Amino acid sequence: MTSETTAAAARATVYGYPRQGQGRELKKAIEGYWKGRVDAAALRATAAGLRRANWRNLAAAGLDEVPTGDFSYYDHMLDTTVMVGAVPARHRAAVAADPLDGYFAMARGTQDVAPLEMTKWFDTNYHYLVPELGPDTAFLADSAKQVAEVREALALGLAARPVLVGPVTYLLLSKPAPGVAASFDPLTLLDRLLPVYAEVLADLRAAGAEWVQLDEPALVQDRTPAELNATARAYRDLGALADRPRLLVASYFDRLGDALPVLAASPVEGLALDFTGPAAANLDALAAVGGLPGKRLVAGVVDGRNIWVNDLEKSLSTLGTLLGLADRVDVSASCSLLHVPLDTAAERDIDPQILRWLAFARQKTAEVAALARGLARGTDAIAAELAVNRAALASRAASPVTRDPAVRARAAAVTEAGTRRFLPYPERAAAQRARLGLPLLPTTTIGSFPQTGELRAARADLRSGRIGTEEYEERIRAEIRDVISFQEKTGLDVLVHGEPERNDMVQYFAEQLTGYLATRHGWVQSYGTRCVRPPILAGDIARPGPMTVRWTAYAQSLTDRPVKGMLTGPVTMLAWSFVRDDQPLGETARQVALALRDEVNDLEAAGTGVIQVDEPALRETLPLRAADRPAYLAWATEAFRLTTGGAAPVTQIHTHMCYAEFGDIVGAIDDLDADVISLEAARSHMQVAHELAGHGYPREAGPGVYDIHSPRVPSAEEAAALLRAGLGAIPAERLWVNPDCGLKTRAWPETRASLEHLVAAARTVRAEL
Ligand code: GLN
Ligand code: ZN
């Protein structure tokens, strides 16, 4: 290793690359395979072609080591489940009959067999399939995929480094299998799992892998001493193996904290650390433990999950500091590039002056390569790159897009009083009751009604110019008329316009706000073949005009019942977009909140008495480390209150969140100071109602009585039973009756029947009061 102790050996690498291809070729091939239009051989050929193209691009960009095994037909956690032989019992027959079909059955389920549960990968918008483990789980190594991919890359003459989910993270992200006690701790399986990893590592070594990367992002979350001990044991045991490649243990998305000394002391040859965002704290922590003598450090200095150009000079200075702390310092992105789109060059509609502020996977790869060159040979070797980079950063900093004096002055003038409603909740509730005259157990929905094929076709027709704006808007109005008349006929109490004009609850607003950018090809994998195109919060946010008022007002003109206005809240607007990295998130949230505040006020002026501000993302953006949460919740709840604080006391503010586990943020939910909250509850049999009550939540709440995630129609009796369960926790004066979430993914027949049953249930239970 002595030849590697100088910066001259600095190498460039990444941990993973977008999987779908520039034209989403993988998505198309997989979906074609599901429909029987593409056979397995053709799917495999498409996949192999994409892997090859990616590796060649990475090598051509100047990477010294390419990742392998990061490719996936669906999800890398699911691939790990296959690799360690933890296929759930209910899927074993299908996997034995046909591994590829069995794999997709685990991911998507079949007519008879439920899929694995899906959940968010840390605080990203990527979703993984949750392994199901129990005391009887017997692991069995299957290294075929990993071995095949490292061979493919080596055959291209590239230095290839397999990337695996590490054993500790794998277990920490698992859950007890169905039928296994909820108290079962998957980490107790570590000793059974390590021999399987040992076997895979030996196979990879035999296939020619010099280094193998084990990803342990779960170690950037707060971990117990027992979990840290398990980590120490895992890497002591893997380190002690005789027949193994060199090991690089990677972490990302946050700082390692207490896990850093554990890994630093372990007998592995390298650590890969994130040095961006809150993970920048790794730098001081590394110095505090005395660096990584004798080890390789891979420094993630290029943000792998956001889309801004790197500050190359700043990164070089970080890298320079790190040189004193490890035997060898290599350069990488902070995490897999899976979380960003592929290439800014495909974006023809973005102003070139702004496009140069952006870096997608391809541009980030070039940044990593340039930084490694700069580190190895000095800044003169990358003088041209530095000049271009400096100019791009200067252009961004000085642009009127990022500095709108009017927006800044308004945000700076926000006072505590501006984030408070005019009267406290109990007085508002009385005023609203008098104004709205609703029955006990009022019925409503969450906002969207079925997004039918006709609506999507109308939007496509508008985009392609087959129909004009007028024709399109008439179709939207026709849909609103249908939705209103259905709700009146069914007997709902607070109506909605149905959101037919919205393609997506964030994009719809992003398109109308100044400072937001849309991409044409900026696809990012959300789960499986589902890709999303998050808009970009690029500049200061302003609202040129009302965004929703005419649709809500039109709906209200058709009925005497209250129509609820419908907005996406500031936290969710940030969570489902790429955010600015040149100012604190709270500043951006405040700008978005002020734009939404104007919309609230305009809705109110147009006669809207009930306004819902959806915040389904409030909990999902919760920082990974508990220490960072109070600061986050402070700006997040402030942004919500700033959005709604200008509403008159008689205006009833609703909010909505789509999850059932929120015990840790009940205080924050109360801090929103909304009048009514609707939540998901049908699947957990009203557990949330009890949780709210247990925390003394004083406001009105609508725990869902209709699970909208499946086409199944709940009977009126079933909905009534859930309502009665809700009444066991929340008094009738404060209980609302609604579905779990919006109905946009449902079809009309089941929506009609379910809402009729929901209204019938409310009537039945009212009569019992
Ligand atoms: N108002 C939105 C809808 O009904 C809320 C969606 C959500 O919570 N994800 O579609
Ligand atoms: Zn929802």
From TrEMBL:
EC number assigned by the record: 2.1.1.14
Keyword Lyase: no
Sites where the protein binds L-homocysteine: I446, G447, S448, E499, D614
Lineage top rank: taxon: Bacteria
Family statement drawn from the similarity comment of this UniProt entry: Belongs to the vitamin-B12 independent methionine synthase family.
Function: Catalyzes the transfer of a methyl group from 5-methyltetrahydrofolate to homocysteine resulting in methionine formation.
Keyword Transferase assigned: yes
Swiss-Prot/TrEMBL keywords: Amino-acid biosynthesis, Metal-binding, Methionine biosynthesis, Methyltransferase, Repeat, Transferase, Zinc
UniProt-annotated binding residues for 5-methyltetrahydropteroyltri-L-glutamate: R24, E25, L26, K27, K120, R530, C531, W576, E620
Top enzyme class: transferase
Matching Pfam families: Meth_synt_1, Meth_synt_2
Residue ranges annotated for the Cobalamin-independent methionine synthase MetE N-terminal domain, each copy included: 13-323
Domain Cobalamin-independent methionine synthase MetE C-terminal/archaeal: 441-763
Cofactor: binding details: Binds 1 zinc ion per subunit.
Cofactor requirements of the protein: Zn(2+)
Name of the protein in question: 5-methyltetrahydropteroyltriglutamate--homocysteine methyltransferase
Catalytic reactions of this protein: 5-methyltetrahydropteroyltri-L-glutamate + L-homocysteine = tetrahydropteroyltri-L-glutamate + L-methionine
Record: residues binding Zn(2+): H656, C658, E680, C741
Pathway connected to this protein: Amino-acid biosynthesis; L-methionine biosynthesis via de novo pathway; L-methionine from L-homocysteine (MetE route): step 1/1
Species of provenance: Streptomyces tremellae
Active site: H709
